[in-house]
Amino acid sequence: MAPLAYYFILSAILFTTGVIGVLIRKNPLIMFMSIELMLNSANLSFASFARYRNGLDGQVIAFFIMTVAAAEVVVGLAIIVSIFRTRASVDVDDVNTLKG
């Protein structure tokens, strides 16, 4: 088994990649994929630490994170489809009509 530090380093790299993707990209689909990457890096940290301590707490938290990620994808894609139908563009900088 690999040392615990390797998993945390990989998790940090994945999380940093996700943050950079959210900050740099303007396409909401890429932004959602970057958010999913950040959530998966948190899952990796929780699961590896739970494995290291021989407990199930981290794995249960990772399961709840996957549930929240699935709900986020459903709501986010519905918003993106709605914006695309009304504006024919999904550029994040052009979207300012969500005021009501």
Account of the protein in words:
The structure is a single chain. With 100 residues, the protein is mainly α. It has a single domain, classed as Helix Hairpins (Orthogonal Bundle). It has 3 helices and no strands. The protein has helices at 4-24, 28-53, 57-87. The mean pLDDT is 87.
Short description:
With 100 residues, this protein is mainly alpha-helical. The chain has helices at residues 4-24, 28-53, 57-87.
Topology summary:
Elements: H1 4-24, H2 28-53, H3 57-87
Helix pairs in contact: 1-2, 2-3
Name the features:
100 residues, Helix Hairpins, elongated, single chain, mainly alpha
* CA-based gyration radius: 17 Å
Q: First CA to last CA: what distance?
A: 53 Å
Query: Kindly state the mean pLDDT as a whole number?
Result: 87
Proportion of strand residues: under 5%
- Rough shape? elongated
The CATH class turns out to be: Mainly Alpha
Protein structure class: mainly alpha
Number of strands: 0
Give the proportion of residues in helices. Answer: over 70%
Outline the biggest β-sheet.
none
In DSSP terms (H or I, runs of 4 or more residues), the helix count works out at: 3
**Which parts are unreliable, with pLDDT below 50 for 5 consecutive residues or more?**
none
CATH topology: Helix Hairpins
